[in-house]
Design brief:
Layout: H1 3-6, E1 11-17, E2 21-28, E3 33-40, H2 47-64, E4 72-77, E5 80-82, E6 87-90, H3 102-110, E7 114-118, H4 119-130, E8 139-144, E9 148-154, E10 157-158, H5 196-207, H6 222-230, H7 234-258, E11 262-266, H8 273-288, E12 297-300, H9 307-321
Parallel strand pairs: 1-4, 4-7, 8-11, 11-12
Antiparallel strand pairs: 1-2, 2-3, 5-6, 8-9, 9-10
Length: 323
């Protein structure tokens, strides 16, 4: 890395603040990641713990490449933002941030401009910039992680909605009456059927009645269910088919409403693409297919876990330089 590239004019600190993990990176304006770190998201009730963790990760990344300073920072939040004031208004997996003056607290510590953005919005921008949706202008990027989010790009522009609430796909309702209760307070949200949290919940609910599985309740994670599915475990395969079916219904609703060119699916759960894609496509065709209507292309993300970080950096460049 050259001395010129190390200057603050060329580097953005981008952070993806997930419900489980915090990932940070130093990214240049061409989308090259020069340093990257990952750690557990602080579980303390104090939002200051999250601020401290972000500062620590930024400093680790910066010091690892010998960069003295940064141009700006961009932090992704798994929830809804007041786009005018950049206040977190809803974050079921990180409730300590709600109504906390997060942007100001970060700028006080970073001493550089800070952009807050929804994580799924940034992932959509990243995939349109350098990933699976490159060249498309009407894109929906679905992020399957601890929760479920969606970033919407219409006519080449990120669509946040009037109050910054657009794209909350995880909290669209599939079963309002008998579905499991979601952290948002409603029942039957898509997030309760198609997220890492949902995979663990479904596995635990079914384990006691199944003898045809290698899964165990102790230290159960979505990754372990995925690994079991790859190995042919019948319960794990059933769970991923269920994930795919519900996800397909959610996608069909998006297609019927917005008519996108491309739908990109990313996030940690998307690693199970081979296990859920068949059931997903079956429901999409059943629910959204119309005679003589072109079907949206559904693709796995190309940028992997870095889609949000790349999108965050791209948005920060545009916000601070206009290009």
């Amino acid at each position: 890395m050259t001395e010129q590239n190390k200057s603050s004019a060329n580097l953005i600190f981008a952070a993806d603040l997930g419900g489980t993990h915090l990932r940070g990176a130093v990214v240049d304006r061409n989308g090259v990641i020069h340093a990257q770190r990952k750690r557990q998201t602080p579980l303390e009730s104090s939002p200051q713990a999250v601020v401290r963790a972000l500062i620590d990760v930024a400093n680790e990344c910066r010091h690892s490449i010998g960069a003295e300073s940064l141009h700006a920072a961009s932090v992704l939040v798994p929830g809804t933002l007041d786009s005018a004031n950049e206040i977190v208004t809803q974050a079921p997996n990180l409730p300590s941030l709600i109504k906390f003056n997060f942007k100001s607290a970060l700028e006080d510590k970073f001493r550089i401009p800070v952009l807050l953005e929804n994580d799924a919005n940034a992932a959509a921008v990243g995939e349109m910039w350098l990933g699976a949706a490159r060249g498309a202008r009407n894109v929906i990027c679905i992020t399957l992680g601890t929760g479920v989010g969606a970033g919407i790009i219409l006519d080449g522009k990120l669509w946040r909605g009037t109050f910054g609430t657009a794209g909350e796909l995880g909290h669209t309702t599939l079963d309002a009456f008998t579905g499991p209760e979601c952290k948002c307070g409603n029942r039957g949200c898509l997030e309760m059927y198609a997220s890492a949290t949902a995979i663990v919940r479904m596995a635990r609910e079914l384990l006691s009645s199944r003898s045809d599985t290698t899964l165990r309740d102790e230290c159960l994670t979505a990754e372990k269910v995925y690994e079991a599915g790859i190995g042919g475990d019948s319960l794990a395969l059933e769970i991923f088919r269920t994930v795919g079916a519900y996800l397909g219904v959610g996608i069909a609703n998006l297609i019927n409403i917005l008519g996108p060119e491309v739908i990109v699916i990313g996030g940690g759960v998307a690693n199970g693409w081979k296990l859920f894609a068949g059931a997903m496509r079956e429901q999409v065709i059943k629910q959204a297919s119309r005679p003589l209507t072109p079907m949206a292309e559904i693709k796995p993300a190309l940028c992997g876990d870095n889609a949000g970080l790349l999108g965050a950096a791209h948005l920060a460049w545009f916000r601070t330089t206009g290009s």
